[in-house]
Amino acid sequence: MRKLIRVSFLFSLLLACSCDSNLKRDLGLLPSSSGSPLELLLVISDNLFEGQSGDIIIDELGESVEGLPQSESYLKVVKIASKDFKPLLQRSKLIMLVEKDTLSARSLLNNVWAKPQLVLSYKGKTEADVIRLLAKHLKEDKQLLREFEEKQLLPRITKQKALPSSFMKKNGLELTMPASFELNTDRDDISVFWSRNLRSDQCIMMYIRPMNGDASLMGGDIISVRDSVCKLYIPGEMEGSYMTTEHEYNPAIVSTDVNGIYSLEARGLWKLEGDFMGGPFINYTLFDEVNERIITLEGFVYAPQIEKRNLMFELECILRSAKLKHSPSEG
Asked: What residues does 286 pair with on adjacent strands?
């Protein structure tokens, strides 16, 4: 899907200002980078973009994010013509340069024109060389872009941190969470935090259970446990309404790693039983084998009139900051 914004500005080759950039970097004079989260500036000639190179970029970077109610691309890609890459645009946080050159190489560069910044460079002697590099590296580089954004986003949104709940203290759970999240429910077995504004609601909940049975270990009960917890602790505004999973859309469950802890990640949609609200959720099931327990961390969003990719990305960054102590407190 060609959700690429075509803009025209003036192109400047990567090496043309490398000496000046290196001097500024050494002196600590690089300007702050600009750009929204998950926004990539794509610098490519029209000839390359209209060919197979552009098709590869669109197919990979324009892939829809799993688990959102509307189609939203993995990255917001802003395309500009190669001839129009001026200094103001060189301050973009994420930049991808695709060009024909006298050599063929793929490079990852940090803080070239601004800080923090990640620049991906694909150079090929021929268009076939460019296509080969993109086909070989772009899928991996897409993940590197996302990981770079995660490292930048979390410190920015958590300059002021929420205080840990008694649940977190008791169970040895550390989570880097913005102060905008206010504690709503705090028990020995569950905590619920809400962050609300005029345009959206974000919620983070965490709960614990013993590790037993094959269903728990294989993730077969993630959704059923989620539904039982949400029915008790996430009521709707209408009397008798409560949150449940939208079962017509099968949640995607994959294995992952959260700070060295084997985990399962589930992405799907939620709805209110007895009401008409809904939205996306992301759920991490952490297997604490040392203490024979399972800790679930979940974030979900209600934002009916705006895109939800960035809101969900914030929750993903927060949840993936989780750390567990091997010996939880008894008090």
From this structure: 263, 295
Distance, CA of 203 to CA of 201 (rounded, Å): 7
Is the bond preceding residue 116 a cis peptide, omega within 30 degrees?
yes
Residue-wise pLDDT tens digits, 209-222: 998 766 556 678 99
- Cα 278 from Cα 204, distance rounded (Å): 16
Task: Calculate ∠ Cα 292-298-304, nearest 5°.
Answer: 170
- What φ, ψ does residue 100 adopt, rounded to 5°? -90, 140
pLDDT in tens, 124-138: 999 999 999 999 999
Instruction: Output DSSP code: residue 236.
Output: -
Give the three-class secondary structure for 124.
strand
b/e string for 227-241 if b means 16 or more Cβ within 10 A?
bebbeebbbbeeeeb
Burial class (CB in 10 A: 0-12, 13-18, 19+), 160: exposed
Chain segment 226-267, per-residue pLDDT in tens: 999 999 999 998 999 999 999 998 899 999 999 999 999 999
**Model confidence, pTM:** 0.85
Q: How deeply is 188 buried, as exposed, middle or buried, from its count of CB atoms within 10 A (0-12, 13-18, 19+)?
A: exposed
Query: Which residues make Cβ contacts (< 8 Å) with residue 81, sequence separation at least 6?
Result: 6, 7, 8, 9, 11, 44, 45, 46
CB atoms within 10 A of CB 159: 8
